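#struct-help
A.M.: can someone run this one for me? Single chain, 212 residues.
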Amino acid sequence: MPIRTWLGGEPRRNIRHGTDPEGIRIDTPDASSSGTHAGAWWKPGTRSAGMPYKWGGFDTPRQFVSRLNRDPENGGRPAAAGDMGTPEKQAEGDDAVSRFAAGVDCSGFVSRCWRLSRPWSTRELPSLCTPLGWEELRTGDILIVPGRHVLMFIEWYGDGREVFLGSEAGPLPVWKCAEHFFSRAILERGGYRPMRYKGMREQETDSETAKP
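D.P.: on it. Structure tokens below:
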């Protein structure tokens, strides 16, 4: 997804810390709120880059920016900018997804990158994939712990196969979509498994397409 900048409005506009009209708790990752959570980052009135994490979110960058100004799900009122994945939300699962907040979560991010028609949860994504060895990882593959988290592999860093550049919608260091360097050893200890989407098409190299 391309990096898109956006301008968060005044607290009443895009910040929420409380229940939505359907009784679901929303906590936006805004750094200006009292009792700030670790990883909260965006500030009202300041232009921010990147899309905030939103529990159960599946917005594209264009949809996200549009919903901040006028959200059809909210009677035309502005949507909340993100919704952090608190322990309470993790316990409630899909029942804790608010349609009044905009953004994307880890599995929604992968689902969008793979151009899936709907968000597939971390429990569902493995059914679309083939397991891999770590040495087989290529751009667009994932590292996943079903029921917990998923991130996308971009490329190995350096000469070995111990550190790689990846992309995720995650909580650390901030609740947003971002690229980071990851340690293979740490992820392996955390139970992450490499997988490849079965619908991934091989990219032809110049040597394969060159005419004799």
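A.M.: thanks! The CA atoms of residues 141 and 196 lie 5 Å apart.
D.P.: also worth noting: Helices lie at 11-14, 61-69, 87-92, 106-113, 184-189, 206-209.
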